[in-house]
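Record P2X purinoceptor, 424 aa.
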Amino acid sequence: MAACGEAVRGFLFEYDTPRIVLIRSRKVGLINRAVQLGILAYVIGWVFLWEKGYQETDSVVSSVTTKVKGVTMTNTSTLGTRIWDVADYVIPPQEKNAVFIMTNMIVTPNQHQGHCAELPDDNTVCKDNSSCVPGYVSIHSNGIQTGACIPYNRSINTCEVFAWCPVEDDYPIPKPAFLQEAENFTILVKNNIWYSKFNFTKRNILPTFSSTYLKNCIYDAQTDPFCPIFRLGNIVKAAGQNFQEMAVEGGVMGLQINWDCNLDRAASHCVPKYSFRRLDNKDSANTISPGYNFRFAKYYKDSSGIETRTLTKTYGIRIDIIVFGKAGKFDVIPTMINIGSGLALFGAATVLCDIIVLYCMKKRYFYREKKYKYVEDYEVVSTNKGRMEKNSACLMAPKSTVLLLCHEPQALALEWPAALSFIN
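=>
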């Protein structure tokens, strides 16, 4: 309790003020200057030159549109000879900041609603009707079981289902890809950006481009780094992937546009930088549900008026256009804030040197005595000094005056009669 009381009294009734002590020591002096030099290099080199701490910044606001071009031809037993253009392989025609290009497909033509045999698997292969449950449907079913067991082919019987018949058989996936020539398709990416804080706008079709150049250029990191037209095969290759392998089961690519602009310079220096990477994880150790695919159907009625559809399971490459960036421009407020923060950091050198001097050096006790000086309250010192002088006077005074000199006023008042008798 006494220690706690002393701590509380020290907290309430003591005040410390800085004291400047000049320590002549090569070691401490060099450490102090080295720390200050490091702080100065950090503030100038990193904060101001690299991070441009003298600028106010803003994040980019962006819009993206795409246009794909390319024509190819296929010849298969299911579809015959057919020409494929943009309206066939770009699904849907427009997406937000993305585009999907079909590269492979499985077509199930002329489906109509009726009764047919389900695809064979562990739950649908049967020997008689007792193996089939009327109304049963699972997540992977193509329809609803009727309870009948019918031939799927000459060797296997499966449960009958009410579904779009014939049911889709999506195995195996065609190899090579159905649209191998999609590698040569091109994508025009039009990107407009806006930095609202600085009211700065620009687009990736630069003012220096002519219509002739735009019709003939293809992006190349070395020869045409600002051309906004990209060959699909080059995008995949730049990400370190093989297009023909990726085209079989599909995948997701990222086309990244970086707009980092220093608006203290001319607007012509604010230009886009393109980069590419594959976004879906292609892991040879994890081959479950790879790539990118979906289904769609086209409906019509046949000559007899029965509703019919062509079901297509589509594999392809989805390209997500990711726009990011930051613009900076000189402003007094962040400049002053960073200068103030840098000056405050110089106090770290003093703190570090104090720790070394007071706790690590051999003469730490000597330095501690020089750094700290303890001063008592003036009023307390004066009172104590007066009492010491009074006590000395009492010892030296004659007996007749001891009572008057050495008794407190209250005691003297109480013993006044005795005092008078003593004097008499």
